[in-house]
Prior knowledge:
Shape: flat
Strand order of the largest sheet: 1-2
Number of domains: 2
Oligomer: single chain
Number of helices: 11
Number of strands: 2
Helix content: over 70%
Largest sheet: 2 strands, parallel
Structural class: mainly alpha
Amino acid sequence: MVQVNNRKANPEGRMALLDHLKELKNRLFKAAIAVILGTIVGFIVYQPLLAALVKPIKDLNEQHGRQAALNFDGVASSFDLMIQVSVFLGVIIASPVWIYQLWAFIVPGLHKNERRLALSFVAAAVPLFIGGVLLAWLVLPNAVRVLTEFTPQGGSNFISADVYLAFVIRLLLAFGVAFLIPVILVGLNMAGIVKGARLLKSWRITVFLVCLFAAMAAPGADAMSMFYLAVPMLVLFFAAIGVCLVNDKRRVRRQAKVSAETEATADVATPASDLENL
């Protein structure tokens, strides 16, 4: 949606369809520029980043005495891996920009309170997403070690670079998106779709699902690896439920105030001057 210079003349940010499409094109262009710049940074730090990605596989050889290596199947496989890693890193680096552009496209069509709420969502979503990705990065070595323990005795792990990269990206995105779920719950509550009391009643199911996800995403040799992942997720979930409960109470008080004002106004007789004007 277009940025309106004169907010007083057009408080709701209304515009023609072509203006909407033009503004969308501008927002997408800015987001694409940010991703391209982030990708350039990805190219610059690719070598140390690749060394960090391959380190869990090297540790299998050095610390656990296994035969494991990252295998490049084709002639251009190494170049493809560099492109994919750099673009993925560029998307993560540019996440504050493209999330903001999405917010800025929606903001002019919202009221003042809704715009402030949308900005709060962006401010919370970016660090949570990045925090989830960083946590997944810490879990990655343990996940590689545990999953390769199922290799039969005498076997070797020659892992395809494409398969390994897909596994890493899915792991990072799974954690990043999981950390965004509490923000989504708060947004649904603000929209009146989900009640905080209903979320609180289903806390047992929430705890079970979080622990199940932690067990699958970070399978460790003991329960501590699951514990380290499940605890921050549970804290975020219950913090979101607390925000929903506070917002529900605020909504009830606001509705009660509006109802009281409506009843008080209904008891007041219409002045004779207003009746004459009618």
